[in-house]
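Protein in question quoted for reference:
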Amino acid sequence: MGRKSFFPVVEGAPPPLRLCVRRRVRFDEVDSMRIVWHGRYASYFEDGRVALGHKYGISYSDFIRENIPVPIRRLQVEYLQPLLFEDEFEVETILHWSEAARINFEYAVRKLDGSLVCTGCTVQMILDETFEVLLAPPPFFQDFLECWQRGELS
């Protein structure tokens, strides 16, 4: 990313998983000044999370099937320059390793010329069906982590 990560490096952890999604700013995403409304960036981050989850086999559908809620506990955005109506951009989504029952995502939104628009992160807690924080990842997610640790995800 070229900037300091939102998350510390975990000793012995596998490299982060990455995926880029390309988008174009739609009319309903801008304010009266044709600038993307700041709240839309959370949706752009979600586009990246969903795509990365599908690519690596940990989609929201998997969590729903297993009755495991994964609410956002933390959302942070650092705005550097605006996106305007019809700008094309990419959302780079980076999944960072965690030993805890949480999911750490980092984001970089860039215009197609490579200029950085914003960075951010989300932390999702992995809960049980009664909305209590799990002390360890559920079995299906633990399987994913083991594949990641063995370098089987690409």
